[in-house]
Amino acid sequence: MTIGDELLYGQVIDTNSAFMGQELGKIGLRVRQISSVSDRADEIVAALDQARQRAQVVLITGGLGPTKDDLTKHVLARYFGTELVLHEPTLRHVEEIFQRFNRPMLDVNRQQALVPANCEVLHNAVGTAPGMWFSDQGTIFVSMPGVPFEMKRLMTDHVLPRLQALFHIAPIEHLVVMTAGLGESFLAQKIEDWEDALPANIKLAYLPSFGAVRLRLTGSDDGQPNLRGRMLALLPVLRERIGEYIFAEEETTLEAAIGRLLLARNLTIGTAESCTGGLVAHRLTSVAGSSAYFRGSIVAYHNDIKQEELGVQAATLAQFGAVSEATVREMAEGARRRLGVDVAVATSGIAGPTGATDTKQVGTVCLAYADGTQTISREYVLDRGRALNVEYAAQSVLTLLRQQLAQENKSGVVIASEAKQSVLFSAPNPIM
Amino acid sequence: MTIGDELLYGQVIDTNSAFMGQELGKIGLRVRQISSVSDRADEIVAALDQARQRAQVVLITGGLGPTKDDLTKHVLARYFGTELVLHEPTLRHVEEIFQRFNRPMLDVNRQQALVPANCEVLHNAVGTAPGMWFSDQGTIFVSMPGVPFEMKRLMTDHVLPRLQALFHIAPIEHLVVMTAGLGESFLAQKIEDWEDALPANIKLAYLPSFGAVRLRLTGSDDGQPNLRGRMLALLPVLRERIGEYIFAEEETTLEAAIGRLLLARNLTIGTAESCTGGLVAHRLTSVAGSSAYFRGSIVAYHNDIKQEELGVQAATLAQFGAVSEATVREMAEGARRRLGVDVAVATSGIAGPTGATDTKQVGTVCLAYADGTQTISREYVLDRGRALNVEYAAQSVLTLLRQQLAQENKSGVVIASEAKQSVLFSAPNPIM
Questions:
Q1: Mutation test of the interface with chain B: which of A61, A299, A308, choosing the one with the most B Cβ atoms within 10 A?
Q2: Which listed CATH number (3.40.50.11810, 3.40.980.10, 1.10.490.10, 3.30.390.50) goes with B2-166?
Q3: Where does the MoaB/Mog domain start and stop, copy by copy (chains A, B) (predicted)?
Q4: To 10 degrees, the CA torsion angle through B309, B311, B316, B320?
């Protein structure tokens, strides 16, 4: 249950419920309903009454701030027929926070230490509003602040461990396999019989996000020993079937996986970008520590810059156009030389909504990878509108980059992967 | 009411409810509750029963797909005691869609044209699952697909106009003023008396998003003529008080507003980026038509690139370090020359989590603007973690850029704005 008018009117999107749902699912609890309600006391009470009828545990966020529209703990005190009392350890914690930031403490801040008399206080290590745990006629209610990082800290520190203990939840094991370069339905086809043969206590979930699919195996206790070991034993078949699309066997990003490959091979990288306008560089540098392998980029939107900074030949531009495999190959090779890097990738495309030529339609993107011994290029036609075309182009060139780095890493031999080109964007789902 | 297990377990974040809440708020309807429920028939029915007790209108999305876990219309037919019947116009529409994409049509696709006998069908121009409008014992239920762009189209084409007509909602007027560069609470302070003096039928909402605050004036009918004109007459005072932070008087982005200023002044732009790693270029090029003024960028992560590509002096790097106003000024000036642009902005910083030096802490970012007649620089210390530090640095340099372009545009005279520096990041709210 999330509380606040700002949620009802879409001024804030309720990401708290999504986080709580993810975490509850991981420990094997079933989520019955998510409700977002207004800041009005009578409507909060009505929602509490309904929630306790459908669930054993009601997690509540929001309405614990210091201002007058923050009603939650007052409503809860009245709902449980009790009153607010001062919680000394919380008061000292709030005082410490204000001292640390050297801010004057107002009476409203002091009131953060008032809690309903019947609650157990959950220490909020990262904020002034404490969590509150209530047990009332067989139902657990937990009230947490709406600030996402405070809620997350309270969930992790207190709420999830307590729920696991309270409900004697059998240990659940998770394995995550991250893939990129093939849509959900195509992946499913390739591993259909493997999935059908999974033991009853091990479930597979496909979690697609933009241009990537996370596979999550969830194993529940079947009374036999070494659940995790038996789950790990399922992976070799998966690697055999879809190994070329797997970029990690843990939660991570494609750009972080690329960073690890570059570090392992002691290679430096740079980019030459036209249609992606710097997004590929931004993603590569979003990884902490990327300065160890990322040197720089040339964003060459205008053809002058492609020629002057990247050494693309005027003849190439004249003959094939800026959006062509020929141009993007020269861009990647030019970036290698110009930035003094081992590996470079390049993009050029017509992001849209305008810019089509006689021979190239809006959404045409060309990508290239160059490492000094070889240059590989691709051409795709996308049709998702400007912003998504740019996102897909960046995701695709990073996918190409990772596949090349991984292949060379394994065998020293480059395996041409032209055959994959046709399926990369043929997934009918808008989430590739 | 949004339907689907994927919402309960956070595999998909419920943005549909946020959109519906925004649109309902705009036409003056009060949103009572948002509920997300599972794919189970009995739980959908329980939620319908509770929803009709608190609201006159229940909007439902999800569960209208062609697969067997898509239960919504079956549940609704049973809930209303009716049966599914074939809707001929919908069948023809579905057939047309499959013909257009040259795909074989399966029986499950044909079933998209089955609807409960008591509904009015709402034509879905952009998908195969129609919307359904039910009126049952004084309550309106509307079922729409969960695919966001289909739901949005149905809301705009059918649902919102029908609701406005049905409830005789008085016309509501909205004015939006977009600001960047000053936090919500500081803005509020500057316009407090103006806000307090607003007529009773005109409300102001502060809608903060990352590094920007949207001000929305909502005027409801007071029986007097020319509501919109009277609202527009309120803006001059707002412009006088906070004009330097206003970048548009309509819904738009900061980068789009910058694009308009560049086009109006016939100026070209490029960027030189270290800590932002290409994000500033990516944002500038996210605007359709940006190739008319954006030429390119140098992402200079490594100091070699700062020297070779941007002409930063070795002595400057040695004396002041890469993260310094001196370096970032030379970067901006170098980008102007190198990229052949009229205006350039530059960033350099320690995004974190590591990289602090003896004199510079993590989160230090330096920004510069150069236009040939002047170079302006800023230094801030941010503390929001790597990803947000990068986002804030990009937002800040775009804010600096816009302010400079706007000032010069108005008067031809550059007004030094050093005094503002201290407040830009002092807002205590994580959403600046």
A1: A299
A2: 3.40.980.10
A3: 1-165
A4: -40
